[in-house]
């Protein structure tokens, strides 16, 4: 078992939300760090049926003198429980840890009831700092960084089952869409938008669906924490920048599983998007776990100058360009140079597949493995 970087304030008095996609290790973390907590798993059919029919029964399941943590796993399955949680926090001062792999239902039906009473945290796939000597760029690009990948005999088969489980248990059972066939075709189409500017009209045309339905499907991926969209960086912009978002599945192994592979598919394009995905998922996790406070953007001008990721927050401004090549040319640095003209305060990074760091004026070119391992230190204010 890997030691996770997530640190929750268990000694505090506030209740907590812990969100994260299925399979990222929320339950394992709880078992390791909260062995005496009272746990309710809403994936248990009998418990789900009982509390769904009568949410107020939750209080009857908690001993009257209970002072330890109460964990409700997959709380989004019964949003009405939040009313009871709210009441028990106020009346009995019970501390709850509420986990969820979907923010959709909670956002719609009551998560705001706990505003100020439950701090929000996220669990991500594994990061290089947790894997240490086990971390491999090649393995991560092929299979991603979900914890079970490192104990499964056949990680590719596990990923196939993982994607199908999400379709069955989350999308179908929760009634998020009535047309699972269309949604499955949409998933494949979405994989070709990985790391790209979203063009929902074009995707809808390719699938023969209306644009509103495609927009709803993308919202489902966001709500199930299966995907993330990042916005263009426009703060103090002098040049005209594009306004559309970029799309990524949350894990490069999941992305590679969803994306069709065959003789007509571009290996180079898929691997390039996979590399960006790997960097993004590590950036997101490190930002959360080390409480760095960045918002992650990208930057692209109307004339096509681009920076893959821009991190902006109290710790500073960082621009990252990701290269599959082991060689960096002046052409590949042009986007960062243009960005630096507009934002001279920025720290400029290129992550590439070479073995030795290089220095091109204000731009530091770092080997990808080394950079990912050093990321927390790189992003802290000096």
Any idea what the CATH architecture of the largest domain is? Orthogonal Bundle
Any idea what the radius of gyration is?
Answer: 22 Å
Distance between the termini: 33 Å
What is the CATH topology of the largest domain? Arc Repressor Mutant, subunit A
Strand order of the largest sheet: 7-6-8-9-10-11-13-12
**What best-fitting shape do the alpha-carbon axes yield?**
globular
The low-confidence parts are none
Which percent range describes the beta-strand content? Answer: 15-25%
**CATH first level of the largest domain: which class?**
Mainly Alpha
Overall strand count:
13
Summarize the structure.
With 382 residues, this protein is α/β, with parallel strands linked by helices. It has helices spanning 26-33, 45-53, 81-92, 104-109, 128-131, 137-143, 155-172, 180-191, 200-207, 211-223, 252-258, 267-289, 334-342, 368-373, 375-379, and strands at 15-19, 38-41, 70-73, 96-100, 118-122, 227-232, 246-249, 295-300, 306-313, 316-322, 347-352, 358-360, 363-367. The protein has three domains: 15-122, Rossmann fold; 128-277, Arc Repressor Mutant, subunit A (Orthogonal Bundle); 285-379, Trna Endonuclease, Chain: A, domain 1.
Polypeptide structure, described:
This protein has 382 residues and is α/β, with parallel strands linked by helices. The protein has 3 domains: 108 residues, Rossmann fold; 150 residues, Arc Repressor Mutant, subunit A, CATH 1.10.10; 95 residues, 3-Layer(aba) Sandwich (Trna Endonuclease, Chain: A, domain 1). The strands form 2 sheets. An 8-stranded mixed beta sheet has the order 7-6-8-9-10-11-13-12, sandwiched between helices. It has a 5-stranded parallel beta sheet with strand order 2-3-4-1-5. The chain is globular. The chain starts with 14 loop residues before the first strand and ends with a helix.
């Amino acid at each position: 078992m890997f030691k996770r970087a997530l640190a929750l304030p268990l000694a505090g008095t506030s209740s907590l939300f812990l969100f994260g996609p299925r399979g990222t290790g929320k339950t394992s973390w709880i078992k390791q760090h909260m062995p005496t907590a009272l746990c309710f798993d809403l994936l248990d059919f009998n418990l789900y049926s009982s509390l769904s029919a009568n949410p107020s029964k939750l209080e009857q399941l908690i001993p009257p003198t209970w002072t330890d943590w109460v964990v409700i796993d997959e709380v989004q399955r019964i949003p009405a429980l939040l009313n009871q949680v709210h009441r028990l926090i106020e009346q009995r001062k019970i501390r709850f840890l509420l986990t969820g792999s979907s923010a959709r239902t909670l956002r719609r039906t009551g998560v705001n009831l706990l505003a100020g009473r439950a701090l929000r945290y996220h669990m991500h796939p594994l990061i290089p700092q947790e894997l240490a000597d086990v971390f491999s760029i090649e393995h991560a690009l092929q299979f991603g960084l979900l914890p079970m990948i490192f104990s499964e005999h056949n990680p590719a088969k596990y990923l196939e089952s993982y994607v199908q489980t999400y379709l069955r248990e989350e999308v179908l059972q929760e009634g998020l869409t009535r047309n699972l066939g269309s949604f499955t075709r949409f998933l494949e189409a979405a994989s070709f938008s990985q790391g790209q500017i979203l063009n929902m009209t074009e995707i809808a045309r390719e699938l023969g669906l209306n644009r509103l339905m495609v927009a709803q499907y993308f919202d489902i991926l966001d709500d199930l924490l299966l995907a993330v969209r990042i916005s263009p960086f426009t703060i103090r912009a002098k040049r005209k920048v594009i306004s559309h978002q970029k799309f990524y599945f949350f894990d490069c192994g999941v992305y590679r599983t969803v994306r069709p592979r065959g003789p007509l598919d571009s290996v180079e394009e898929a691997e390039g998007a996979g590399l960006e995905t790997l960097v993004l998922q590590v950036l997101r996790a490190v930002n959360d776990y080390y409480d760095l406070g960045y918002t992650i953007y990208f930057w692209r001008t109307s004339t096509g100058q681009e920076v893959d990721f821009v991190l902006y927050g109290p710790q500073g401004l960082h621009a990252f360009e990701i290269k599959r090549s082991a060689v960096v040319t002046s052409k590949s640095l042009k986007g960062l140079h243009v960005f630096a003209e507009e934002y001279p305060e920025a720290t400029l990074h290129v992550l590439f597949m070479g073995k030795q760091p290089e220095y091109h004026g204000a731009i530091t070119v770092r080997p990808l493995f080394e950079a990912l391992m050093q990321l927390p230190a790189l992003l802290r204010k000096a």
